[in-house]
Amino acid sequence: MTDEPARSGFAGAPPDATTGTRDATSLRAPAGPFSQADRDALWRAIMGRRDVRNEFTARPVPDDVLARILTAAHCAPSVGLSQPWNFVVVRDEAKRREVHELFSHANAEAAGMFDGQRQALYRSLKLEGILTAPLGVCVTCDRTRGGRVVLGRTHQPDVDLYSVACAIQNLWLAARAEGLGVGWVSIFDTEELKPLLGVPEHIVIMAWLCIGYVDELFTSPELEARRWARRLPLEDLVFDGVWGEPAGDLAPALRAAAPDQGQAKG
Ligand SMILES: Cc1cc2c(cc1C)N(C[C@H](O)[C@H](O)[C@H](O)COP(=O)(O)O)c1[nH]c(=O)[nH]c(=O)c1N2
């Protein structure tokens, strides 16, 4: 058991009729650590989540499951609570075929940007599941949402984009827990995608997500398994106090917590 409130257990007082505010103290709930079983489950979602290209099955994604992962996305943090996201759900195969054509064109261009053996390896990689996944979700950012001045965005205008990235990560983790795989495709010109989906000019397309059930997943990033790139040692990326100062005392704990040390199971 945990002492966390249930997902839908919002037990707050109603807004005060005169001020429109709530009694903030009544909106708090205990926030101790999760039980070991719950922590294990969270770690399993984090470490077992993968970017999926090949493993999608054709099994349709029921609406209630889709609604849950979209709800997970919608519960993400966002700057000033601006919630700048929208989600265009695309099941239609003909539409996905058009999206796939955009990918194919862009992917051919991308391949040409690498040289020699690297290009050959790039061409051997499968970098999308637009047609094999039964569902595509285009995630967007409305940079006008929240009005001209948004709390928290006054000096860092791009934090609305970061907010949408948080939403995508929430969705990705929730999908893992549901037995769904997600593949993020960014190899196409988003301006060409807009007219296909009727996305207005001022909206930014953040991601095309391929979503479907999976029976198996890679145990480490597929790009690592296919020798394109490697996960960097975390201890090289953590500095102590100032940029460039090695993590020092923290380094052994960082090494011990690394995924390949068996800390987390997929
Ligand atoms: C913003 C962004 C954009 C993309 C990706 C990710 C992110 C965060 N990734 C997936 C990426 O390759 C993958 O996350 C890493 O290789 C790590 O693997 P796991 O996600 O841990 O399986 C990705 N993968 C792919 O095959 N085609 C793509 O176009 C993209 N684009």
TrEMBL record:
GO molecular function, a single term: 5,6-dimethylbenzimidazole synthase activity
- Which parts of this chain are annotated as the region Disordered? 1-33
Extract the InterPro entries matched here: BluB, Nitroreductase, Nitroreductase-like, Nitroreductase/BluB
Starting at the broadest rank, the lineage of the source organism is: Bacteria, Pseudomonadati, Pseudomonadota, Alphaproteobacteria, Hyphomicrobiales
Q: Which keywords, in A-to-Z order, does the entry hold?
A: Flavoprotein, FMN, Oxidoreductase
Q: What class of enzyme is it?
A: oxidoreductase
- Region forming the signal peptide: none
UniProt name for this protein: 5,6-dimethylbenzimidazole synthase
Q: Which NCBIfam families match?
A: BluB
Q: Name one Pfam family in it.
A: Nitroreductase
Question: Nitroreductase domain location, by residue?
Answer: 46-213
Cite the EC number.
1.13.11.79
SUPFAM superfamilies given for it?
A: FMN-dependent nitroreductase-like (SSF55469)
